[in-house]
Amino acid sequence: GAGVSQSPRYKVTKRGQDVALRCDPISGHVSLYWYRQALGQGPEFLTYFNYEAQQDKSGLPNDRFSAERPEGSISTLTIQRTEQRDSAMYRCASSDEVGPQYNEQFFGPGTRLTVL
Amino acid sequence: QKEVEQDPGPLSVPEGAIVSLNCTYSNSAFQYFMWYRQYSRKGPELLMYTYSSGNKEDGRFTAQVDKSSKYISLFIRDSQPSDSATYLCAMRRHNAGNMLTFGGGTRLMVKP
Q1: Are residues B38 and B47 in contact, defined by beta-carbon separation less than 8 angstroms?
Q2: In A67-100, which positions are buried (b, 16+ CB within 10 angstroms) versus exposed (e)?
Q3: What share of chain B has pLDDT > 70, as a percent?
Q4: Closest CA to B110 of B72, B50, B60
Q5: Alpha-carbon distance A108 to nearest alpha carbon in chain B (angstroms)
Q6: Scanning A4, A25, A92, B53, which has the fewest C-beta atoms within 10 Å of its C-beta?
Q7: Cα B34 from chain centroid?
Q8: Do B42 and B105 touch, CB atoms closer than 8 A?
């Protein structure tokens, strides 16, 4: 079946512009996660959802970053007034269960954001 | 200091060698330990996961967790050029959501 998809794959924007990054999880997956990965680094947690409810947003760097998942499927990560330091790969992952037990996260190909 | 430390490499080995990849961590609350493989320009894909301490084997791959030392390892036997990738360790706490804390990744190159 189809994996996690993200769009756009590449986004170049000018400093100060707003951007919206989209994640389409694996069909039926109830949990969705956003990570940011700098070049040569591991992914860094941003926020996650169970169904449409945002469970934890402690990893969002500041209030310019927000995320939503209104219908419990597709999610959008929005960065307002972008800055050059926001340039990174933004990755989405999904898993098919909630709860304290281990749930494998399946990662998407990412959106490469470049802020000029 | 980061919660999870991983030597960035690169680690270069000849084909057929045994590879040892390692991570150390500082948070004793971590209970689940994972190894992801990431090929260039791709997303991470899960190789193995282990709950708490112990060993787990899957084909050419063996994962070890030593919680007393806060040290985890991934061993790759009979390494192949197709194993060339970045290997990321990841960890999560029990009963605290499913968010993962990753190491920085080790780049492995297996030369034919």
Answers
A1: no
A2: bebeeebebebebeebeeebbbbbbbbbbeeeee
A3: 99
A4: B60
A5: 6
A6: B53
A7: 6
A8: no
CB-CB neighbors (< 8 A) of A41 in chain B? 104-105
List the strands of the sheet with A5-7, edge to edge: A5-7, A19-24, A75-79, A65-68
| Model confidence at A1: pLDDT above 60 | no
Would you list which residues of chain B are within 8 Å, Cβ to Cβ, of chain A? 4, 6, 8, 32, 41-46, 49, 51, 88, 90, 92, 94-105
- The length of chain A, given as a count of residues: 116
Dist. CA A98–CA B4, nearest whole Å = 24
CA distance A74 to A49: 11
CA gap A7, A104 in Å, rounded: 22
Query: How far apart are the C-alpha atoms of A32 and A96, rounded to whole Å?
Result: 9
The two three-digit tokens of residue B13, written as one number: 């080995």
